[in-house]
Amino acid sequence: MSAPTVATPSRRAILSLYTAMLRSSRAFSSYNFRNYFLSKTRDTFRSIQAEKDPEKLSSMYAEAKQDLAVLRRSAIVNQLYGGWRLSVEAQQSERDPDTVKDRGDN
Predict the structure, then answer these.
(1) Which of 30, 4, 24, 28 is nearest to 88 (CA)?
(2) Record's PANTHER family (predicted)?
(3) For residue 60, is pLDDT > 50?
């Protein structure tokens, strides 16, 4: 018997997953979490892009899909229990006051 063939994800599927992960990463209200997950997403998809082995590519794609589900849930929790804005974010509000919303209990 031969080994089962592995369905390699299409380029469109990979790009769709990449944009979904970037969107979910941007949904974090916490500056540090948001930047960490944006960086991690970019690194993950650079490694997926460089992979040549179809079996390993499929495995990496499946793992990234699972990570997306976790990322979405984590972003929702982070939005609920946000916290204080950092001084880095306050500099952004000076440029565009509509982008950063301050807490009402200051």
Answers:
(1) 30
(2) LYR MOTIF-CONTAINING PROTEIN 4, PROTEIN C6ORF149
(3) yes
